[in-house]
Fold each of these.
Amino acid sequence: MAKKAFFVIVLAVFLICIYTGQNADDVPMEKIEQQLKENTALAEMSKCSNRMLMQFYSLDYEQFDEYIYYKSSQALSVEELLIVKVKDTSDLDSVRDAVESRIQSQIKTYEGYGPQQVAMLKNAVVMTRGNYLFCCIADKPEVYKEVFTDAI
């Protein structure tokens, strides 16, 4: 009986950790952006416009609460950071699909001649947390992810 109670408690703690781990505070994008600039190489990328979000991801900025989109200014670089805050979590699937499509398209583009770029694309971090979708394609995307998760 004690073993069963112990396993039930462990299971309950595990489920609570998983459930609360998917939540995120409602943090203004300016604060997230500032923390990324201070703790990563984001300053080496260029901030992208609404038009560029539509051009590269086929995402309409008016459908979201806020977003941050940075892209490398170097022609052959695939480094990008995209954070989208959706109005409703049901919108996350369509944003994730657009992100996955962009990554696959980039892999096809660089497959024949850019092994470093392809490796970076295959190592991209894409995750959701609360109403946020985070996508980072970089040499060390884990650093960006850590700063982002600490911010929210």
Amino acid sequence: MSDLSHVDETGAVRMVDVGAKPAQRRRAVARAVVRMAPETAARLGDLPKGDALTTAQLAGIMAAKRTSELIPLCHPLPLTHIEVDTRVLDDGVEIVAAAETTAQTGVEMEALTAASVAALTVYDMAKAIDKGMTFTVELLEKVKDVGSTESGTRR
């Protein structure tokens, strides 16, 4: 179990100590895709509950800022930028969330949380007219030293 960063030698969960690590500029990008009937996708701006896309953008931004309250072992981070973009597809909506910080640990959980909550918001707002929706969430990019010549890890 000692190979797991959030588990100590005895098997107990713990928050990783990042105190000795230097603060670095970091960026992560996540994507969610909500699949739905084409008729539903065409109505995302005019649903009974309102504009799903604008509401999803705001929900994603708000969620990223609260990630450490939702995921028990995440460090609270001073986010410097959060962007949530939506794009309507023929059979759904694509949500791309980017989060940035200058900190001692990565910001991928914030990007994933933003994309996930934005997708859940679209789902919630459209569920009354489409019972068959599904969604997926994935990490697209995780970069350390944003702006330097070394770009870090990309998925």
Amino acid sequence: MPFANINGARLWYEVMGEGEPVFLHHGYTASRENWLPVAQRLRDRYQVIVMECRGVGESEDTADGHSLHQYKNDVLGMADFLGLQRFTYAGHSMGGGIGYLLATDHAERLNKLILMAPIPSGGIPGNPDFARVDEILSMRATDGEARFRAEQIAQRFRLDAETDEWVETRVRQRLRASDEHVRGGLQSMYDLNVSDKLATMTVPTLMLAGSVDELLRANLADFERLPNAILHVFSRAGHDVAIHEPAGVSDAIDQFLIHGVITSADLNKPSRFPTPNQTPHD
């Protein structure tokens, strides 16, 4: 397994395929496994880079640096390590929060941005319940595995996608996330506040959302603020969009990377879309 020392942390990553570079970044208590069904579909057309942030998956548990801003800097550090001046970034949930920061602070590094069920640009409302967090963290060492499994089974939405194997994957992910990441990452998701910057965020953006995800309304509100974005809502997807609709997500990303942002003005430009005998660049 490849690792890179980025900003003082030993981070896991994998590069698949060749072509335009596309980063895939996971959510809060997830790992690379949430993106793998999509990565495997895109690897024959793009250079897909999958990475895991500090305190998650096979990456190092560091004593500090557990914030969206540090995770953002780690993405940039990984891009530098791989020799990539510009790239497309796709982030799920917490990874979407990282995407907002990349687009508002480092737009010059991005070709395009993909936000999949991202956390709200204004942060998660309210304040984190750290008493409950500490209870869960202490419970992990005793009956955490059984409780996480029971919760995951009870929350199943797509039985065909959320198989027994997938349930076990989610249990492992939640058990694995370091205490520092669980606390720091959570606080950082509440602290995110870039809503007032979205109107000037010109990076071409694809917003992917699940119709039965609790974040849908926040996603729609943020999409409305973006001046250069398109939206795709999957009717049979919850928060784990890439697990529920891996083929659809892969196709949406592929079409976005080929065509970019499509507006109503493009309806009168049929040449924008190739015929079966044309390539997009003919």
